[in-house]
TrEMBL record:
Name of this protein: Arachidonate 5-lipoxygenase-activating protein
Pfam families to which the protein is assigned, alphabetical: MAPEG
Chief location category: endoplasmic reticulum
SUPFAM superfamilies given in the database record: MAPEG domain-like
GO cellular component terms attached to this protein's record: endoplasmic reticulum membrane; nuclear membrane
Complex and partners: Homotrimer. Interacts with LTC4S and ALOX5.
Function: Required for leukotriene biosynthesis by ALOX5 (5-lipoxygenase). Anchors ALOX5 to the membrane. Binds arachidonic acid, and could play an essential role in the transfer of arachidonic acid to ALOX5. Binds to MK-886, a compound that blocks the biosynthesis of leukotrienes.
Membrane topology: Multi-pass membrane protein
Keyword set includes Endoplasmic reticulum: yes
Keyword entries, A-Z: Endoplasmic reticulum, Leukotriene biosynthesis, Membrane, Nucleus, Transmembrane, Transmembrane helix
Sequence intervals crossing the membrane: 46-70, 91-113
């Protein structure tokens, strides 16, 4: 909602009646940041759900909240100079990687149970719970 509000505000601020692609440099940055966030959102939802369902819900939820804050930082950074958005982008990639690795660990655990009867779910939950606070390190 914040991204859409900023896009609408910049569109009206640039003396245009609707959402036009031609506008000021500020409008172009807001529009591009909004598009970038929109394109990254389906990937985020897929790995968030997979990590939560297949591995552990609490670390996945923590990483999901962190990702939302990071995307906010990315968006606001993109409104300034483009180099200000780089930390948010890199931090977001790290969170997506963490969620992806959680998903892979959950899938591997399922196949270990299916083929060998070994369940490492407790160990995986312990490891992901211990690693998730490390996402706060910039």
């Amino acid at each position: 909602a914040f991204f859409a509000y900023k896009l609408e505000h910049e569109s009206k601020h640039c003396n245009s009646k609707g959402f036009q692609r031609q506008g000021s440099s500020c409008f172009d940055r807001v529009y591009t940041a909004n598009q970038n966030c929109g394109h990254a959102y389906p990937t985020f939802l897929a790995v968030l759900w997979c990590a939560g369902l297949l591995c552990s819900q609490a670390p996945a939820a923590f990483a999901g909240l962190m990702y939302l804050f990071v995307r906010q930082k990315y968006f606001v950074g993109y409104l300034g100079e483009r180099t200000q958005s780089t930390p948010g982008y890199l931090f977001g990639k790290r969170i997506i990687l963490f969620l992806f690795l959680m998903s892979v660990a959950g899938i591997l655990n399922y196949y270990l149970i299916f083929f060998f009867g070994s369940d490492f779910e407790i160990h995986i939950k312990t490891i992901t719970s211990a690693i998730s606070p490390l996402l706060l390190i910039p």
